[in-house]
Amino acid sequence: MKVEGGMGMKLMDKEVLNFILAHQEISLETVGQLLSKKEEEIRKMIERINSVLPEGSIKIRDNKILVSGGGIEESFDMLTLQEKSFLQEYEVELRRNLIMYRLLTHHDPSSLQQLSEQFFVSRNTAFTDIKKIKELFRHDPIQLSYSRKGGYQFKGPEMIIRNKLIQITRDLIKTVYGKTKMITFHLLSETDIHSMREKLEEIEHHIGIQLTDEQVNELPYILCAILARAKNHPIEWSFQMHRYDIRNTKEYPVIRDAFQDYPFLKEPDLIYLTLQILSSNMIESAFRLSDSDEISLAVDRFVDHLKSKLAIEFIKESDLKEKILLHIQPAIFRNLLGFQINNPLKTKFIKDHGFIYQVVSESAAPFENLIGHALSPEERVYLSMIVLGWMYQTKENAKSIFKAVVLCHNGTSISKLLLENLKEMFPDFEFIGAYSFRQFENRPIEVDFIFTTIPYKSKATTIVVPPFLEQESRQQLKKLVQKLLDLDTKKKAKGIVYAIKDFIPTDKMNLVEETVKTFFESDRKNETGEESDALGLKLTEQNISVLSYEISWEEVVDTIFAPLLERNAIEPRYLQAVKSAFYKHYQTMLIGPDVYLPHARPDEGVNYPDIQIVLFKKTVMFPNHRPVSLMVALAPSADNSHVLTLSKLNDIFLDSKALRQIKSAASPKQLLKIFERR
Question: pTM above 0.85?
């Protein structure tokens, strides 16, 4: 991998690369028009991009920009990598993972000389890597041991060693050049990977599961790693599955028979392989646990708690529960066996959707009671993605101008979240759905746009998007779509004719559209527009109260909801519903440290969504003997749009400095300024 003195890819270079990957044979002239740059500037950008890619990845031929097959995956990874990925530390981390993979799978211990020769580094560098690896495992049950006769080798409980091997394999295949380096350094072969992929397709067919594209890409490497470990370390080992007997499922014999050409595999190895395949399957799986009724009840309690905390009603609630059930069953296997699932979006999701993550974490207690310990943050984020994606479900827009589809090689929760985000961003698009690449290729659907997480060739306008859309990514994507619409005279004409269709005779629609298209082709205009994001409930001074007189516990609900009654946002019956719920369960209705959120359901008397933030200058003593100075009265929306406001308020209330400023405010105007600054 080439590295340019620690320099990362410039923002404009990334935009150029995005256009190239979306079209793959786009002309220099077109890219220049889209970005308002001269052709020479575009050429220099491509030179910079090529400097951090394998040689010959992007070429210019007859004024067309071409991407080689081998360069597409590396190019896409560059779009989503952070700046540090181009620093020297990145290569060091990759090499250390490769060393750990060898030490975990090779049949003999490895000396410094062997590591030095295999990975083309000095003995001193190899020794530094070994020291760092030892530090990483300092507090683990497995240790990196050394003998003068053989060298370095991992020792410890076999179950933990295999779990660690899977984690390292996942890290490698999700790293730029990771898969290439594993083959280059002869840690595995392309033939083995191809053979394992064929076995997975066989297993899918026989037991009726549908793996995601990501799993089809990932599992062959994981299974090859397990096979290498089992072959080179033929030790007696076992593990217990007290609650679920895998050997008595219909799936186990199918998977066992698929691996019968590996005679060194013992029963624990085969059960472990089975669990890897089944527990990683998170979409459309027919796999059911023997006590799924218990899990179904846990799903019911989970959803009920969410509805109470978020003051929402889910559309197609039974479908949501089925989706959660399909996810949580294999998640239970992962947790019982100590598998460490990888969720690359964990940090970003928690940062951008901390409130939803917090509520889901609190609501996950029924699942945690089943497995006997807390879910990992990665598992909680996956659950949060399912919930967030479902929250913004609305009826299909019958007045859409363009048809679009989402293609995602990740699991269902990620693709669903991406789909719902795109629906929110582009209300004029009719999104047919989210599909894996294999699903889409088997379903001939005519669309205008394809939003895809990896490059995909199609006649439709194809746009490469990251699986998780941050604020900056959203803004760039809106600009990109608008530019592509401006560039495509047919789509631009279609949009304009649709806007005035009520004034055009039906039999003249096609003629008018063709005329407008011809006009734009002769005089192309470049106008860009940007829609504002949904902001939830509007907050003004009238939505804030600062009370200087004493309020009793019994009066508090009537007091804070009085402004909502005056504005006719709620009916008196809604106030009664709130009082009935809050005075019984107030300790569960929190939106921040000692900040309470009394509410009921929208169908219990909400005329329109509204909110009132109330600051008590003289604190109210609650039954739990805690003084309360801040409360939020909520009349929730039926379409769940109020959740955006709650999320923002939660972020503010969790900031101790902001909370002190709020409590010291003397007027609604001062309070509003604090909220507006956030």
Answer: no
